[in-house]
Amino acid sequence: MNPYSVFQSVSTEQLQALKVCLSGETRSFQRGEIIIRHTDRNENIGILHKGLVFLISISEDGETSIIDYYERGNIFGKGFTPDSDINLYYLTAKEDCEVTFFPYEKLMNCCEQNCEKHKSMISGIIFHSFRRCQMHIDILSCRSIRGKITAYLRYMRIQKESDSFELPISLSDLAGYLSVDRSAMMREIRKMKEEHLIAAKGSHIQILSHL
Predict the structure, then answer these.
(1) Rounded distance, CA 28 to CA 11, Å?
(2) Which CATH number describes the domain made up of 6-128?
(3) What fold, for 142-207?
(4) pLDDT tens digits for range 59-87
(5) I want to staple 38 with a disulfide (CB 3.0 to 4.6 A). Which of 66, 78, 89, 206 is the partner?
């Protein structure tokens, strides 16, 4: 179960009803396809049904960074992704994706019927988006590479409700998400394995002790 998913508070049936109520549109994207560009006049909020989406930043120097990633039930788009005059941002499909888009103004202002499903959706969007933001801030605020890895694994343990889980992203992408050098991160993971704190094989992680 993903604790940062809007589907925690909105059922599939409610979402289908909202699509009709708010003129929502579901679209499919292939792996590598750009979903939203920073330069687009985007007035929509997207809810991810299937796949994996990366939020990418490009600095003035051309350096590319992974700012965030989105799984099923996560929200992105107007008001929920960065708006900067310095860096460029775009959302890209890391895997084949399915996204339902809602007009921002219609979604954030209750419909004429003031229906409960609509109010529940707004509440879920705000709450779960805040929790996702807070998670990433907590991770990036750790000063050491080990601290960032440990914080991330703690969140994954909570999200997956298990000490043994598959990482949702590759180790190379994880280094970008943690904003650390990949080689340095892999050395730290190797040390954590040697200290019997974790077992790791590819993207599968097992936490062996209290982190």
Answers:
(1) 21
(2) 2.60.120.10
(3) Arc Repressor Mutant, subunit A (1.10.10)
(4) 778 788 888 899 998 888 876 666 666 66
(5) 89
